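sry for the spam today, last one i promise. struct tokens for design, 360 residues
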């Protein structure tokens, strides 16, 4: 990979807005590069991000069919690649991304984003992926830790705790900023894609239907109620035929109480079934989450990340719904069932939830 980088070639993965890959080389996508320059110039002049978005929208410039999200703009503003710089581990490559934005404008913007709340402060101090990352090899937690580089600079890394305690795991540590940015970019990229989102929504709707059809708890309750009613009827006809023993009366009251209890539980199960999430609600869930600042976006969307040296698997949260009575809230996708694999650009096969596999 480093050899590829040194040759100035693209090492794979998705390509950021404003660029395209031609024969293994990153090239400027002129039309989009114009948009990137506009965003940088306006922001450098002090125009607010929301106003930049408004101006772009007024000009009919959209991102994947809809107005630019704030996060997308901030990600563009913070990405050094637009100034022609690509960092990997401690190496800087200036021969991979042709610069779209002049260094002086990039610097002005960097100073501004560093001082605003989205920029350096919140992202640097907070470990965004805390408690969400697991080692793909040994299953240990991956925690963020400070480390000191050879030149004395303090850096933060995500490290496999198994490896730290010498369990023989080979998981390499990852720079904190690199991993966090990568995760955020990927989430926005994947879920921001209209086709991917539509596909996920369809899959979730299908699952919901299946789950409702398969409501075994309800089936059991109905069956039990039928049996109880039969027993009640039997005792009633015995009574009508003159057999009124105390035991029969006592048993009748028990059965009637039981029947009432079953009736209540059946109502609860039916309410759950009736409480479906609509297509619009599922879409809104993801779209709203994508508008959030990084911390919230990750909290909303990421259930778990399995980290390997060459890839990661993001397991996403799915929308949750509540029945009319809040205490009966339930998870549409309980997460205990088998997860399904959703390969990038691949086909979705499994049963519940979804995960995206991203090769580094
Ligand atoms: Zn490990």
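last one done:
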């Amino acid at each position: 990979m480093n050899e590829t980088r040194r040759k100035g070639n693209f090492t794979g993965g998705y390509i950021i807005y404003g660029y395209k890959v031609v024969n293994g080389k990153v090239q400027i996508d002129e039309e989009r590069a114009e948009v990137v320059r506009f965003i940088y110039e306006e922001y450098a002049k002090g125009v607010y991000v929301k106003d930049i978005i408004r101006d772009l929208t007024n000009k009919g410039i959209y991102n994947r069919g809809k107005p630019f999200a704030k996060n997308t703009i901030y990600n563009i503003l913070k990405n050094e690649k637009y100034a022609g710089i690509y960092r990997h581990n401690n190496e800087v490559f200036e021969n991979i991304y042709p610069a779209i934005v002049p260094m002086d404008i990039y610097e002005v913007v960097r100073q501004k984003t560093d001082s605003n709340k989205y920029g350096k402060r919140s992202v640097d101090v907070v470990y965004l992926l805390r408690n969400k990352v697991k080692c793909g090899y040994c299953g240990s937690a991956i925690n963020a830790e400070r480390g000191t580089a050879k030149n004395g600079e303090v850096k933060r890394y995500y490290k496999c705790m198994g490896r730290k305690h010498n369990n023989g795991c080979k998981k390499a540590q990852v720079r904190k900023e690199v991993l966090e940015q990568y995760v955020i970019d990927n989430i926005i990229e994947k879920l921001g894609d209209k086709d991917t989102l539509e596909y996920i929504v369809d899959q979730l709707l299908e699952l919901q239907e299946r789950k409702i059809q398969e409501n075994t708890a309800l089936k059991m309750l109905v069956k039990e109620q039928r049996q109880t009613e039969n027993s009640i009827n039997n005792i009633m006809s015995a009574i009508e035929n003159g057999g009124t023993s105390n035991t029969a009366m006592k048993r009748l009251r028990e059965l009637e109480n039981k029947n009432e209890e079953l009736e209540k539980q059946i109502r609860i199960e039916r309410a759950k079934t009736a409480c479906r999430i609509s297509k619009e609600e599922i879409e809104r869930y993801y779209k709203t989450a994508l508008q959030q600042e990084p911390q919230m976006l990750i909290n909303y969307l990421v259930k778990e990340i399995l980290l390997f040296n060459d890839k990661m698997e993001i397991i996403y949260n799915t929308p949750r719904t509540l029945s009319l009575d809040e205490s009966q809230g339930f998870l549409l996708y309980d997460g205990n069932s088998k997860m399904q694999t959703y390969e990038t650009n691949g086909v979705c096969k499994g049963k519940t939830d979804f995960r995206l596999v991203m090769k580094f």
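The mean pLDDT is 79. ok im logging off now
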